[in-house]
């Protein structure tokens, strides 16, 4: 009997199976494990932190935060919930989501709620005052907040209150920086030298001091439809800016939801005709509080 033959038999002369059955067992075990873990009993994440969620789940979480804030005006709670998502810039994340919803037609009407929360967050950055436990100089002191409210104190208090990390929510919330009379149409201009903005109905909303007002709802109607859009969703173009894509030869009516005159019969201006093709311009409307 040869040496190779002896390797294939045991002491009793019975042929052995070799080591291939071990490898096949490992392969079958791995395949069964994958089938069980992926199909039969996949891992289900429960009570995970919001920062680890998928992007679409994060969008739903932001929508719920905006809806809750719209009902309660509890800005501190909304900020705490947004912090759970771990966004580097929560305002930009909310703005981007609102823009995407408007692009898709905003079927759920959530864009306004997101813009409402964005406006509140932008206002809060200039309202929260830092405090510390230290002595103040003797005499009358006065501090002005960005809202123009003067905070005065007389004498030397023994001790200032300990600062609290969570800011106290404001008693009321106003979507616009200033209140005033209904808006008036300050300017209505047709533009033909900006091909990249062709067919855009551009709206700019400012207060009486000329400062842009974000979160302003704009209502536009035409013979077959109606749409609502908001300022401040394109911050790179200005907090008081909004635009709407017009259809040639369609006449539109526009009005601010906060009040003001109805502007009618707006249509895309034809700028030039070359070889039978019309080049369309854009409109810029500026609304201002008197």
Helix and strand arrangement:
Elements: H1 3-7, H2 20-40, H3 55-72, H4 75-83, H5 90-103, H6 111-124, E1 141-144, E2 150-153, E3 184-191, E4 200-206, E5 217-222, E6 225-230, E7 241-245, E8 252-256, E9 263-266, E10 270-274, E11 277-280, E12 282-288
Parallel strand pairs: 4-12
Antiparallel strand pairs: 1-2, 3-12, 4-7, 5-6, 5-8, 8-9, 10-11
Helix pairs in contact: 3-4, 3-6, 5-6
Note down, in words, how this protein is organized.
- Strand 1 and strand 2 (150-153) form a beta hairpin.
- The model is unreliable at 1-6 and 127-179 (pLDDT under 50).
- Helix 3 packs antiparallel against helix 4 (75-83) and helix 3 (55-72) packs across helix 6.
- Among the domains are: 50-124, no CATH class; 184-288, Immunoglobulin-like.
- 28% of the residues lie in helices and 22% in strands.
- It has 6 helices and 12 strands.
- It is an alpha+beta fold and 290 residues long.
- It has helices at residues 3-7, 20-40, 55-72, 75-83, 90-103, 111-124, and strands spanning 141-144, 150-153, 184-191, 200-206, 217-222, 225-230, 241-245, 252-256, 263-266, 270-274, 277-280, 282-288.
